[in-house]
Amino acid sequence: MRELDETNDKRFWEGRAGRKGMEMRTAPLWKGESFDQYDPHGAGERTCRVTQELLGKVRKPRPGSRSLIAKDISLMVRKHAVLTELDRARVAFRDVTNRTNSRTVIACLIPPGVHLTNTAPYLAFIQGTERDQAACLGIMNSLPFDWQARRFVEMHVSFFILEGLRLPALSDDDFRAISDAAARLSAVDDRFADFAAAAGVEWGPVSPVERTRLRIEIDARVARAWNLTRADLDVIFRDFTESAVTPAYRAALVDRFDQLT
Predict the structure, then answer these.
(1) I need a surface site. Which of 14, 126, 175, 211 has the fewest CB within 10 A?
(2) How does DSSP classify residue 162?
(3) Please, are residues 164 and 95 in contact by the beta-carbon 8 Å criterion?
(4) Tell me: the pLDDT tens digits for 51-75?
(5) Which residues pair with residue 27 across a beta bridge?
(6) In Å, what is the CA distance from 8 to each residue of 13, 150, 253?
(7) What letter would DSSP give residue 154?
């Protein structure tokens, strides 16, 4: 879903002072630069006015009409999915990117109550819980998925490219492990307390050592679910600089992959 447009909807955040003596309800507005993988830092945050017009825009009269699944999912179901997302933390990703960046797919869990511009599209889940959100986020931010995206992405992670990418078939064990790890990485503070409770994880800061361990766990399990080999991992590594994926991380990932396989 594309929520608000930087060009066509700027009236909601530019010149936003209300009439004298009137209180105006506001909400944070984020763009793609406002987050990194598992890092909802909010850089460049602006404030938008929450009006009936804005609510009409974000609730979308015909959501997902250009999606590949639109022909199979009724409009009523798609509208309900959007309304569900607006009440909880959402999975968003950067639209503007580059296949030569340290990472091409940059996805993050966005706090509830934050609105998003077109440079930060979000996913509306037709069905699924917070654990499904977390598993999806883990796959999107994984090295194997990023390597796949680099075969097609030039400057934008468009809906057409994203919906055409393939997903691994996860076993129940891999789903639980990936979901747990991605949920813990995402629940960095009390903004995500409700999400953490629903996903069954703790919330709060994650140490650098634990952060690395959780990311390795996700990458190793996604690689195994795709039936990759150590030679395949070497091919994937060649797409990333050593500053993006350090030698120590590569070695630890291979070790964990060997343990799982």
Answers:
(1) 14
(2) H
(3) no
(4) 999 999 999 999 988 888 889 999 9
(5) 48
(6) 11, 30, 44
(7) S
